[in-house]
Amino acid sequence: MKKGTTLAVCLSLLLAGSASAQWVVSDPGNLAQGIINASKNIVHTSKTATNMVNNFQETVKIYEQGKKYYDALKSVNNLVKDARKVQQTILMVGDITDIYVNNFRKMLSDGNFTPEELSAIAFGYTRLLEDSNDVLTELKNVVNITTLSMTDKERMDVVERCHSKMKRYRNLVSYYTNKNISVSYLRAKKKNDLDRIMGLYGKSNEKYW
């Protein structure tokens, strides 16, 4: 069996799911799109802090479903080198949603952000999630049956490109998160409320204010 065909089979198994891994969905893009849709709902329908918290619960539900998926994917071993890069790329989508959900949950209970600011922050996360999901779509096209005519080099180039793009988006989400948190630190410092905010986000973010 040619290397390209072997890789295609491995990638198909990764993207299609495995009974032994007990994955909860057949396509990781479904999870990402679900969170994107829920986040858009936060942006467009949340007018008050309470309303925003309630709407965010739908995002949390999808995230918790996705966490089971990504935890199962982490346990998949013995993959060929390039299929391993596909696995890492998909897992980085999990990292992105984890950064978003866990930090936005803290921002909702912060008190240093207005509902309008939180809506703007959610909008920023949504845009970054959409860009990340576009990379997943590009990656999925590599294993589509109609692309089996691609050469090995073409296939590997797409995998490498998607891996690099997703790593960049993960770093952007981390940077975006820390910059927003830095706003709260500065506001808390002016109000002599640093201890509470540092307890909320952790001292690891202290370098950002």
What number is the mean pLDDT? 82
Percent in strands: under 5%
Cα distance, first to last residue? 56 Å
Main sheet properties: none
How many individual β-strands? 0
Radius of gyration: 19 Å
Number of domains: 1
Oligomer: single chain
Any overview of this molecule?
- The protein has 209 residues and is mainly alpha-helical.
- 77% of the residues lie in helices and 0% in strands.
- The chain has one domain (3-208).
- It has 7 helices and no strands.
- Helix 1 (3-16) runs parallel beside helix 4, helix 2 packs antiparallel against helix 5 and helix 4 packs antiparallel against helix 5 (115-142).
- It is elongated and about 60 Å long.
SSE order and pairing:
Blueprint: H1 3-16, H2 28-45, H3 49-74, H4 81-108, H5 115-142, H6 152-190, H7 194-201
Defining traits:
209 residues; mainly alpha; 7 helices; elongated
Q: What's the gist of this structure?
A:
The chain has 209 residues and is mostly helical. It is 77% helix and 0% strand. Helix 2 packs antiparallel against helix 5, helix 3 runs antiparallel to helix 4 and helix 6 packs antiparallel against helix 7.
